[in-house]
Amino acid sequence: MERTFLMVKPDGVQRGLIGEVVKRFEQKGFQLVGAKLMQISREKAELHYAEHQGKPFFPGLVDFIISGPVFGMVWEGDQVIALSRTMIGKTNSLDALPGTIRGDYAVHTNLNIIHGSDSPESAQREISNFFSEQELITYTKPI
Ligand code: CMP
Fold first, then answer.
1. What does pTM read for this prediction?
2. β-bridge pairing 70-76 and 3-8
3. I need a surface site. Which of 19, 26, 88, 142 has the fewest CB within 10 A?
4. What is the DSSP string of 20-82?
5. What are the binding positions for ATP in this chain (predicted)?
6. In testing the pocket of ligand 1, which one of 7, 44, 57, 108 has its CB within 8 Å of the most ligand atoms?
7. Does residue 105 carry a pLDDT above 70?
8. What is the pLDDT, as a whole number, of residue 143?
């Protein structure tokens, strides 16, 4: 069963969108196996966004992600990595279609509400950056 790391960013938390984001993934049929409100350290933020190190937007991105609490989650389900990226919508705000989270709630590429892992390797790395094994709970649904 595939797992992904999703994070409601500081703008999403401040705008009261945690519940809306969780609702969408629950209703899609994915299973929440871990979640917590976190004020992340600069060190963890730089590790999380390591692939963007050296890009012009990197310093601002790190400053933004540590500027306030984020809501980190681990979700489980068939093809959850690719399907959650579709539900989140494109990074560039001009390409994020209505019906997606970013398309419905974000105007700016920097303030884009939510992050989602883009590959199994990223998911593994991002989950272990923010969650211990003990914080992830596997359980069966009644149906
Ligand atoms: P996220 O999915 O969290 O991954 C990297 C983040 O960098 C992205 O969302 C955007 O919030 C931010 N970002 C800002 N400018 C760019 C850019 N030109 N290309 C990609 N990501 C960008």
1. 0.96
2. antiparallel
3. 142
4. HHHHHHHHHT-EEEEEEEE---HHHHHHHTGGGTTSTTHHHHHHHHTSS-EEEEEEESTTHHH
5. 9, 57, 85, 91, 102, 112
6. 57
7. yes
8. 60
Question: Is 102 assigned to a binding site?
Answer: yes
Instruction: Quote the ipTM score.
Output: 0.93
Does residue 91 have a known ligand-binding role? yes
| 79 φψ region: left (φ > 0), alpha (ψ -120 to 50), beta (else) | left
The DSSP H or E segment spanning 6 is: strand 3-8
Q: Which tens digit of pLDDT belongs to each residue from 107-121?
A: 999 999 999 999 999
Looking up tokens 């401040």 gives 14
- Token pair 């933020």 is found at 45
pLDDT at 83: 98
* Catalytic annotation present for 52: no
